[in-house]
Write a structure and sequence with these properties.
Blueprint (H helix, E strand, L loop, with lengths): L15 H6 L2 H9 L4
Organism: marine metagenome
Protein name: Alpha/beta hydrolase
């Protein structure tokens, strides 16, 4: 299993999704790891 990366955005509060999905590294990680 791939090692996930935890990123904490303390200033984002409940809206951490916006910062998360604005990060291109997330999509690179998705593309590198696929379910088999």
């Amino acid at each position: 299993h791939p090692n996930p990366k935890l990123t904490v955005y303390p200033e984002a509060r409940h809206n951490s999704w916006t910062k998360t999905y604005d990060n291109p590294e997330l999509y690179e990680w998705f593309l590198k790891h696929q379910r088999k």
